[in-house]
Each structure stands twice: as C-alpha cells, then as structure tokens.
Amino acid sequence: MAPPIDLLSPSAFRGSQPHEQFAWLREHDPVHRHTEPDGSGFWALTRYEDVRAVGRDPERFSSQPTIMIDDPRPGGTFGDHRMMLMADPPLHTRMRRLLSREFTPRAAEALRGRIAELATGIVDAVAGRDRCDLVGDIAGEMPSFVIAELLGIPLEDGRRLYACTEALHSVRGHNRSAQAAAFEEMFGYSQKVWREKSADPGEDLSSLLIAGEIDGVAQDHIDFFLWFLLLVDAGGDTTRNLVGGGILALFEHPEQRAWLTEDLEARLPTAIEELLRWVSPVIYMRRTVTVDTVLNSTSLGAGDKVVMYYGAANRDPTVFADADQLRLDRTPNPHVAFGGGGPHFCLGAHLARVEIACLLQELLVRCPDLTPVGPAEWPDSNFIYGPRTLPVRLRR
Ligand code: HEM
C-alpha cells in the first residue's frame, strides 16, 4: 500500500527522513508529481541515477531562478545580481573561479591544525560541565567559527550570524518576522564588513571577494552580500547537523560506535562518509526544466520544477547494499550528500570533512561516555535535516 506522500511538511523530517515514503516512491513512482498548496507542484526525484543525471545537466535543468521549492517572492530577487548557487554556467563557472582555489583539498588540509585547535577550545568550553546541548554548545560552534575565521570577522560574530541562518532555513511563513529580521541582520552585517575590508583589506575571503572581478567587472556591495550569505549559510547548519545527526546515529547504533572508537583515527574518514550518507543534511536541491524533455520515461515541460531528494538517493538499494543499515566501514560509498557531482557540487566538501573529523575526534576521545539524556528537538524545515538540540551527559 502506498503511504501518504507529503514531502513538504516539516513534520516529515522530524526525527528521521521520510524513508517509508522515499522507498515507495523509488520503487513505484520515481518521478513523482507532487502537489504544492501555494504553487504549481513539482517533480520529486528519489532514485540515485535520476538525482545524479539532473544535478549534472545544467542545460536542461537550471538553478535559476532558485534552488528552493518556493519561487522567489515578487521583489525578492536582486535584479541582475546572482548568488553562485543560483547561477548557471557559463556565469557560474566564472563565479566559482573566484573562490575555488581557497577550497581545494590542499587548502582544507592546510587549515587542519587551526581547526583542531578550535575543536579543542570548543570541547574545553563544556568540559567542566556535566551536561550540555550537543548541537548548540558543540556541533554548531565549529562551522560558525571556521567561516568567521575565513571571512576575517570575530568568532563571536560568526556565532551570531549562524543563528540567523537557521531562521532563514525554516519553512517560509512559519516565522516570517524572524526570517525578515535574520535577513536584515545578515545584510547590515555584510555591508559593515564590505566597508571595513574595502578600506583595510586583509588576508581573508571577504577581502578576496571585494577585490575580485568577473569578466573585468568589479563586485559591488550587493554581490558581496550574496557571497557572504552563501558562505555563512551553506557551511553552517549543514555541518552542524551532520555532527548532531551523526552522534545521534552513534547513540542509536552502539555496536557501530564501539567499532569506530576501537581505532578512531584510522576509521574516522570512512565512517564520516557513511554518516554523510546516513544523515544527508541537505534534504533537497531544486532545478527548473529549460526545454520540454523526458526523464526516466516521464515527460517534463519547460518551466517545471524538479526536486532532487538526496536522502532518498542515498538509500537507493540499487547502489548501496543494505542501504537501510548504518555500516561505518562501507566502501566504496558514492553518496550524494554533497550533491550529485555537477557544477554546483559542494564547494566546501573538503573543508566540511576536516571540520567534522576534528570535532568528532576531539569529542569521542575526551568524552568516551557521552550519552543522550533527553529527546532531540527538530527544526521546522523541509530543506535542512538534523536535530536542533540534543541534550547529552558528558561523563559517567
Ligand atoms: C556536511 C556539510 C555540508 C553538506 C552536506 C553540504 C551540501 C551541499 C550541497 C548538497 C550543495 C549543492 C550541490 C549541488 O547542487 O549539486 C552544496 C553547495 C555548496 N556548499 Fe556545501 N555542504 C556542506 C558544507 C559546506 C561548507 C563547510 C561550505 C563552506 C563554507 C559549503 C559551501 C558550499 C557552497 C559555496 C555551495 C555552492 C556551490 C556552487 O553553487 O557551485 N558547504 N553543499
């Protein structure tokens, strides 16, 4: 029997992704016509091959005008200014070139020492306590500190901006005033950085972006805001939720946790890939069909919305043996948690892996008796998945 299909309600993503719905759709209706109360509806993709094909074909499946299911509100765009995530090649290629050298595996590796120091500081800050919130006090600190350092702003401000991203990621209309306030704050802050770094550039991404040109044209303060928003936004609750959701998965699979901690340093890199597959912190990315086309025997019309569900593709049994089992030693693990490998493949993937590795290493070594002491809370989102809070006891 088909389960009721509703991939829009945030309640479908509380506690777990809707794997029952995903499994049914993958098998019976892989290009599913999903209704939308305030919109035209969209095609929901749940098979690995379809998710990869769409993500890798920007000519037929555009990232413009947006990668969110909701269309932009009238007046909700910035004229000709584009955020990289919502641009198509060739503009996208030129934009990405501005930053790509800062996010290579080698660049991420060069930051490992500093990121390990941050991890030590984060665990030091809770070490004297008996209990804490694993998400807010530990997991969320790392990405907000790292992006603050990269952008050349105080760590404390990074923490504040990261709180704004959560409001921005919650479902539209659920808390409109908080969303508007978060947007205003982010805009105001980016303009302050723009002024300060224009006057006194440093060795940071903000200064690099301000000095950057695309086709000989300088970036203006709106372009800078869109970069700023993207960088603070993309690496914040995604990385946080992988750590929060990953620790939750370890609590729920004690035998896997025991296997991992037996030889933590050697096993962590493989385990992180499985946690990425398992948690899939980015629930979806949307594309818009540019020409009438056919996908997996289904006709799609120009202008249709197509939504790639990464958590569904990551449990596709045709690609992953025992897809519904957490196996921290899984290799190979061609998950699509960072995207299906197209032009928008996560720019921060290498950096995220270093952040996650340093934090999990520090946490699992220093707090071997870490245990949950209450239920997790979940955000109001159908876009980013993972617990919002997770109360834990740090020692026996
Ligand atoms: C576990 C953590 C993370 C996950 C799961 C994640 C996932 C994703 C996904 C699914 C995409 C879209 C891929 C596509 O459309 O094909 C993306 C894009 C992006 N991510 Fe990440 N991300 C993470 C961490 C980070 C970090 C730490 C940064 C950097 C600070 C970052 C920066 C970006 C940027 C800039 C893009 C846009 C790339 C483009 O449009 O070319 N991400 N990420």
What does it look like?
The chain is α+β, with helices and mostly antiparallel strands and 396 residues long. It has a single domain (18-393), classed as Orthogonal Bundle (Cytochrome p450), CATH 1.10.630.10. 48% of the residues lie in helices and 10% in strands. The chain is built from 16 helices and 12 strands. A 5-stranded mixed β-sheet has the order 1-2-10-7-3. Helix 9 (176-199) packs across helix 11 (221-235) and helix 14 (264-279) crosses helix 16. The chain starts with 18 loop residues before the first helix and ends with a strand. The mean pLDDT is 95. Bound molecules: protoporphyrin IX containing FE. Protoporphyrin IX containing FE binds at residues 55, 84-85, 96, 143, 147, 230-231, 234-235, 238-239, 242, 281-282, 285, 337-340, 342, 344-348, 351-352. Residues 55, 84-85, 96, 143, 147, 230-231, 234-235, 238-239, 242, 281-282, 285, 337-340, 342, 344-348, 351-352 line the site of protoporphyrin IX containing FE.
